[in-house]
Write a structure and sequence with these properties.
60s Ribosomal Protein L30, Chain: A, alpha+beta, 6 strands, about 20% strand, six-stranded mixed sheet
């Protein structure tokens, strides 16, 4: 695709700003095609790049005598002594949960469980700090009920309990809830696995539930958008992944 006007409308639909589109043109030294726009929209999304929060995240300490794994891997890992380490992961699934509360929250839990056991740890507990609009608002109540059910339902299906959480109701979150999920895992320190592969000729094996059209464009369409129009929200529901806790439990 080389039509500038068409690309301009597409990049906004994919969650890219006009400034970001100009940067892409400068990087490529030409107009991007649709595939390239889709790739940039994913990699430059808030979900993948943390473009608005990275500057604040840098203020936190990330190294220490007991820190085995810091930023860059699926989860942080801390040595707690006696040959035992804990893996820690927290994630937000705000916008997917605003569109499809149950699946948005459920796949948030699924994602952090994956990040924990892919480090070599066994997930043992889930927690959920949540923020919703007032309960006397029908939409906020619908979101709250779906999110709580999604978090607990996914964790229970996998066999990892939700041991605690925190819930606040305020007008601030009426249009866009905050859905944070936390997972803790434990493992012997020698079982630590890092997300890297070395050598030529290694086989790549994809494990997980069957791939479908659900979730396509989710990080770009949902992660940096705002919602208010009911029809627009309905159109974006297919961008929310459908979780498969039983397949993840097998893994």
């Amino acid at each position: 695709m080389t039509d500038v006007q068409s690309n301009e409308s597409i990049h906004r639909a994919l969650g890219l700003t006009d400034d970001e589109y100009s940067q892409i043109v400068e990087i490529l030294d030409r107009e991007p095609n649709y595939l390239e726009l889709a790739m940039f929209s994913v990699m430059w999304s808030e979900h993948c790049s943390y473009k608005s929060s990275r500057i604040h995240l840098r203020r936190f300490p990330t190294a220490g005598d007991h820190v085995l794994v810091g930023p860059g891997e699926g989860a942080g890992v801390v040595d707690v002594g006696d040959g035992i380490a804990v893996a820690i992961r927290i994630e937000s699934h705000n916008h997917p949960s605003a569109i499809e509360p149950y699946q948005g929250a459920a796949t948030g839990v699924g994602g952090i469980l994956r990040d924990i056991f892919s480090m070599g740890a066994r997930p043992i507990a889930v927690m959920d700090p949540l923020r919703f609009g007032p309960l006397d608002d029908a939409r906020s109540r619908w979101i709250a009920e779906g999110v709580v059910s999604g978090v607990s339902g996914y964790g229970n299906s996998v066999g990892v309990p939700t041991i605690g959480g925190e819930t606040v109701f305020d007008e601030t979150y009426a249009d866009n809830p905050l859905v944070n999920v936390f997972c803790l895992g434990v493992m012997p320190t020698e079982r630590l696995v890092l997300g890297r592969a070395e050598g030529v000729g290694n086989l790549a094996v994809l494990l997980g539930s069957s791939t479908g059209r659900d979730g396509i464009g989710g990080v770009s369409v949902l992660a940096s958008a705002g919602f208010s129009d009911d029809e627009a929200e309905a159109d974006k529901r297919p961008s929310v992944q459908v979780g498969d806790p039983y397949e993840e439990k097998r893994l």
